[in-house]
Design goal:
With 146 residues, this protein is mainly α. The chain has seven helices and no strands.
């Protein structure tokens, strides 16, 4: 029920935003310049919207894990994308946490030599490296390689 109400409130917000965007387009072409000048704000709101969608997906898949490995792998993919989001926003320790959640699920279900598992190890290495944790980065890269 909470997810449904959250989805409904997001739909209402999107409808309002679409109306506002339409108003900008009617400004004799100046709306485009204003939008270009506010590009950083647009990127920030896009990232925020992406995070909110990932949170909703996480909630849905967590509540449906009992339905099988396919749902668990979708949840792992959500954690992977949440890690990518954290990496993009500079929250490197949080990125590692999300990648670890993804890795735990994938290692339970997938073949240890899976490319998907190697990719998570690689992304963990990137997060560690960006956080100046070079020993853990090397370890993660070695696991990605093997």
């Amino acid at each position: 029920a909470n997810v449904d109400s959250h989805l409904a409130s997001n739909d209402d917000e999107e409808d309002e935003e679409e109306g506002e965007e339409g108003e900008e387009d009617d400004d004799d072409g100046e709306g485009g310049a204003a939008a270009a000048a506010g590009g950083a704000d647009a990127d920030g709101s896009s990232l925020q919207l992406a995070w909110e969608n990932l949170e909703i997906a996480r909630i849905v898949f967590e509540h449906n894990q009992a339905k099988g490995d396919d749902v668990k792998l979708k949840l792992a993919s959500v954690f992977y994308e949440m890690g990518n989001y954290q990496l993009e926003t500079g929250s490197f320790a949080d990125a590692v946490t999300e990648y670890d959640k993804c890795l735990q699920i994938r290692q339970e279900i997938m073949d240890p030599a899976s490319r998907d598992i190697a990719l998570v190890h690689f992304q963990r290495g990137v997060a560690f490296q960006n956080n100046s944790d070079f020993d853990d980065a090397v370890s993660a890269y070695k696991k990605a390689k093997s």
